């Protein structure tokens, strides 16, 4: 599903990542662990085709990041470590906005948005303004957003960051269920 060979990103004399080789199969749950600045986000951005490596190669489901970025973007759900919500949008409006960006239209859009709220246990916040959610609820909303287009690969940058212990357990369980 994800393969990298000699993946390297260099800024001047500094290596953000150097010679990363990965081979992850469908259903694998893989986590980058390391200190700030170790290159975790850089690697995910390259795999998501949001950043170009200095050299090396990455494939998602056999597609090269160099020659098939559009196909990869259809396959990947990328959730950055920090993402904004719109102050004047309700939770359901936020999801519908992004569903429209994924070209999900009509009744199908409404249905998928409602389903994703159920999946991440946020249906009870459907009509709340997105900027009033707790950190854990915001993380779950972000996860619902990246699930809208039914991606085959999830790239989640620090999905447990800033969550209280109970919210971490809930999010970890949700991710395990999605992996299954």
Features:
180 residues, alpha+beta, 4-stranded antiparallel sheet, two-stranded parallel ribbon, 6 helices
Helix content: 25-40%
Q: Give the ordered list of helices and strands.
A: EEHEEHEHHHEH
The general outline is: globular
Question: Tally the helices: what do you get?
Answer: 6
The low-pLDDT segments are none
**Average of pLDDT:** 91
The N- to C-terminal Cα distance equals 15 Å
Biggest sheet details: 4 strands, antiparallel
Q: Based on DSSP secondary structure assignment, what is the total number of beta strands?
A: 6
Measured by DSSP, the beta-strand proportion falls in 15-25%
| Radius of gyration computed on alpha carbons | 17 Å
Name the structural class: alpha+beta
Produce the secondary structure layout.
Layout: E1 2-11, E2 14-24, H1 40-47, E3 55-60, E4 63-64, H2 69-75, E5 76-79, H3 91-101, H4 106-119, H5 135-147, E6 153-156, H6 165-179
Short description:
The protein is built from six helices and six strands. The protein is an alpha+beta fold. The mean pLDDT is about 90.
